Amino acid sequence: MAPLLELNHVTKRFGQVVVARDVSFTIEDGAAVGIVGPNGAGKTTLFGVMSGDLRADSGQVRLAGRDVTRLDAAERTRLGIGRTYQVPRPFSGMTVFENLLVAAQQGGERRGAASHSLAASALERARLSERANLRAGQLGLLDRKRLELARALATRPRVLLLDEVAGGLTEPEVREVVGIVRETLAEGVAVVWIEHVVRALLASVERLMCLADGAVIGDGEPREVLSSAAVREVYLGSEAAFEAAS
Amino acid sequence: MTALAPPKVPDLAPAPAPEVRRSSYPSAWLAGGSLGAVVLLALMPEIISQGGLVVLLNFFILLTMATMWNLLAGYAGMVSIGQQAFVGLGGYSVVVLAVNGLNPLASIPLAAVIPALVALPISYLVFRLRGGYFAIATWVVADTAELVISSVTALGGGTGHPVPGLGSLSPRTFGDVTYWLSLGVAVLALAVTYGLLRSRLGLVLAAVRDDEVGARSAGARVMQARRIVFVVAALGCGAAGALLAVSQLQVQPGSIFSVQWAAEMIFVTMIGGMGTIEGPILGTVLFFVLQQNLASQGAWYLVILGSVAVVVAIWAPKGIWGFVSSRLKFQLFPVGYLLGGRGSTGRRR
Q1: Which helix (H) or strand (E) holds A8?
Q2: I need a labelling partner for B61 at 20 to 30 A (CA). Which of A108, A212, A245, B169 fits?
Q3: pLDDT band at B27 (very low <50, low <70, confident <90, very high)
Q4: Start-end of H helices in B21-130
Q5: CA distance A37 to B292
Q6: Which residue does chain B place closest to A154, by CA atoms?
Q7: What pLDDT digit, counting tens, does each position of A111-152 carry?
Q8: Phi first, then psi: what are they for A9, rounded to 5°?
Q9: Which domains does chain A have, with CATH numbers?
């Protein structure tokens, strides 16, 4: 059977700068994969290429064997690739519930009552029930991150791409996000998670990839990857990775 | 990997359907109020003079156009200054259908569909451009349509063409029927707009207005949504143009394709309140009140119109309705969703 998500020799340039060079990897159904790497390593760019926000200059993206390289973000969402953004992108003028309803109706379950249930489930999963009828523009950072996650969940993804959902949160808040991610994993949804908060990753993923300068320089069991020589070199000076790994 | 033992969680999909309401007050009020207003307006031929009916007819034509422009620009973010293309095509469609033996009054629905059909291929051209470039492109389309139509000698070229087949009605009946048709078209335009905004499409448009990248990522087909709106707006403007042709008994390319129509739609929508259903209604009322009372003042009339636009743009950028409703926290046409039993504080603008 074809892997859930597959990147084949993907290259992406911004002008002269190569931000992804000949990247290939696969994500299996239900897998929990973390991605680390220094700023500018090309992590978010890779997400863009997977989600359809960016078009790869060369190479191929496949979802469950189907070539989705030429499909735009909306079509890929409908096929099961959900994503969150590093800086949340709420629909500020709409209520929290309406934010989720758009995602449920467009990316998930189109019918009236079923879309309402789907949106309400995502609301509860992300612990946002109390905020359902608040305008998204009024939410604080934690709630924006929750909403970002919930909106991706409401599209009923097969693979969920999380871009630093724990960034900027306090310790208890990070634990809560980890809880939401693990509940999602338990449902069989594959998760690919870019995160600088390595503790959060180690509590959630079984595979870790390290990106540097647009290339995968480490891929495997999280603690092994973090302690490998190549990864140590790019992370030299970043204590978080070592502390967590040791 | 024991740390990753999956916690017991309920599945995301099957949950009982939650209670979802569409407004914080009974919609029976809205339905009753609107119906009352429409019935009153429908009785106008019994109440006011034929001259008054003509003013109201033109009011409804402009209201229809403004409602369509508001849908385009206020809700779908497409600032068009070329809607007169579809007004003109609607008017000329009436002529072509009437020449071929159709009753002009009965042909209005078909005459409105023709511009909508033309709008579909045009959307593929103009949608390649955004913002100001899109606006200019629509104007170019309108001018091109005018040039093409005025070069067709069978349609009277630059001097225009009368609408045949209207001689059999008495002036009184003709006046009443065209008035009712214009009322019907305006009500339909408002109802269709309201229906669209309450539908899934309306939610998509609201999302795109807030964050287009986020909307695409939520699965929204943004181009498709815009295309539907563009075609619906052409349909509405086409109906308005068909009514213009019928009520004026003739079409003339220089006037029915005039950019003046775009200017008026934009003016009334901006002063009334863009992006609200109520705005174009209020704006059109204000425009007609000013026009009826000041048109005889010549240049001063235009000075006053311009001043109104400046004052509103500076002190009430969301238009008069936006100014009023943000203070009263009230809207006549609610389009939002409220999830039941969760402390309803949200209210959608």
Answers
A1: strand A5-14
A2: B169
A3: low
A4: 27-42, 44-47, 50-69, 84-99, 108-126
A5: 69
A6: B218
A7: 788 999 999 999 999 999 999 999 999 999 999 999 999 999
A8: 50, 50
A9: 1-80+158-246 (3.40.50.300), 89-156 (no CATH)
Tell if the CB–CB gap between B211 and A72 is shorter than 8 Å: no
Residues B311-330, buried b or exposed e (16+ Cβ, 10 A)? ebeeebebbbbbeebeeeee
| Residue A92 distance to chain B (closest CA, Å) | 6
As for the ipTM of the complex, it is 0.91
Q: Taking CB atoms and an 8 Å limit, are B339 and A74 in contact across chains?
A: no
Query: What is the per-residue pLDDT across A69-85, written as a single tens digit (0 to 9) for each?
Result: 999 999 999 999 999 99
**pLDDT tens per residue, range B191-246:** 999 999 999 999 999 999 999 999 999 999 999 999 999 999 999 999 999 999 99
What are the sequence ranges of the domains in chain B? Answer: 33-258
Chain B: residue nearest A125 by CA? Answer: B12
Question: To probe the interface with A, which of B75, B209, B339, B348 has the most A CB atoms within 10 Å?
Answer: B339
Sheet with A190-194: list strands edge to edge: A81-83, A159-163, A190-194, A32-36, A207-212, A215-220
Please give the single-letter amino acid code of residue B54.
V
Q: Between chains, do B206 and A93 touch, taking CB under 8 Å as contact?
A: yes
Residue A72 identity? D
The tokens describing B241, both together, are 């143009």
List CB contacts (< 8 A) between A93 and chain B: 206, 209-210, 348-349
Interface of A with B in 188-217 (CB under 8 A): 203-204, 206
Those of residues 195-234 in B touching chain A at CB distance below 8 A are: 200, 203-204, 206-207, 209-211, 213-222
Give the tokens for residue A50. 């997977």
Q: What angle do CA B219, B220, B223 make, to 5 degrees?
A: 135
DSSP code, position A95: B
Instruction: Give the length of chain B.
Output: 349
- On whether any CB of chain B is under 8 Å from the CB of A39, the answer is no
Q: Which two tokens stand for residue A36?
A: 């680390």
B207 to chain A: which residues are within 8 Å by CB? Answer: 91, 94, 99, 102
Number of Cβ within 10 Å of residue B344's Cβ equals: 15
Round to whole Å and give the CA distance between B58 and B55.
Answer: 5
| List of chain A residues whose C-beta atoms are within 8 Å of the C-beta of residue B4 | 32, 182, 185, 204, 206
